[in-house]
Amino acid sequence: MDKQKRTVYAWAMYDWANSAFATVILATVLPIFYKDVAGIDLPGNLATSYWGYTQTIAMVIIAFVSPILGAAADYSDSKKIFLKFFVFLGVSGTALLFFVNEGNYLLASFFFIIANIGFSGGNVFYDGFLTEISDSKSIDYISSLGYAAGYLGGGLLLAINLLLISKPSLFNISSVTSAIQISFVTVAVWWLIFSLPAFKFLPEPKKRLEKIPLNKYAKMAFGRLKSTFIHIRKYRELWKFLLAFWLYNDGIGTIIRMATIYGREVGIGQTDLIGALLLTQFVGIPFALIFAKIAGKITAKKGIYLALIIYTGITFYGYFLDSALDFWILAGIVGMVQGGAQALSRSLYGVMVPESKSAEFFGFFGVSSKFAAIIGPTVFAYTGQLTGSSRYGILAVAAFFILGMFFLSRVDVEKGKLEAKNQ
């Protein structure tokens, strides 16, 4: 295997590694555990609302930190070092969920926030490598390859954990609760082990910049942050795309984070919820690559439009969700568009980013994706708490997709590419 292919596969393998967190912790097992075990004493739909607020707190922290991280990584040329740090942070927070028991919803929220900061912070630097290992011809494919690997890896561990949770006696485990707690540890181990190829094969810095004293590092990072705000506004099409992405990814992130606990609230069983989300993973594998082909035919921008139209329909269907079959259908449709929308968004952003500012501007992409996870879960949680039903919360998510499409229509991609080249 040549060096370029090895590097690309190592990069994609990190998506395989950390997607175990996205599937088991973020999307399926932990939300159910949060409602049924950690939040067992909470009345009505408060557990669902508190889970939404937990998402908001985690995302507020990482949204404010990630641009600093991106600028700092670009200045120090240390993306790989930062990636390792956040992997270890995420793995530690995930493993600590093993110790959460009945009624410990605050402890569950705290450990999840630590883990999610690790997950999100690591993605800032992972995304920053994309422009280093690809060119304008391969970026759509490589970005989609990462998402496909993530669906496969995350789906595989989710399948293992579904068996573990549904048949704990096969593994000599005393209860379903214990099986779920053990599943949290499997995520931590999986994430760490399959991150090792990225640690080994992703490119080292091409040059070493001058080291700065630790006591000046924060000052330099904040100075770079201020500079980034000024610089990114000069790239008008890139900036307009960020605004659109911020809106529609808010909707995508809300569905990822709230779908399972919402399904549990309306009475769908644990096995159906986990099984349906497993379907999402495996449907997502071919469709992440299919959307790359679609982008080649109709452009990435139109591919994103297609995904967002489908997402809008998902929110309306979700309002009327009434059975396990409905949830399975929705899960399959989400699998068709989730990876495609995110992969094409990342690659479309990448072709409008100046190469010399990749880490810095992908730090801003990290900000966008993190801020895009703040408002949606808050709106969902507050709407559900206010009305006493989360059905109105899922309906409100449609607004983010509609507004996102409106702002995306204002982006001139070809002009954005020229702006990046003529930096």
From TrEMBL:
Gene3D superfamilies: MFS general substrate transporter like domains
Domain of life from the UniProt record: Bacteria
Any one GO cellular component localisation term in the record: endomembrane system
Topology versus the membrane: Multi-pass membrane protein
Subcellular location: Endomembrane system
Sequence intervals crossing the membrane: 12-34, 50-69, 81-100, 106-126, 147-166, 178-199, 241-261, 273-292, 304-321, 327-349, 361-383, 389-408
Listed InterPro entries: Atg22-like, ATG22/LtaA_families, MFS_trans_sf
A Pfam family matched in the record: ATG22
Keyword annotations: Membrane, Transmembrane, Transmembrane helix, Transport
Record's protein name: UMF1 family MFS transporter
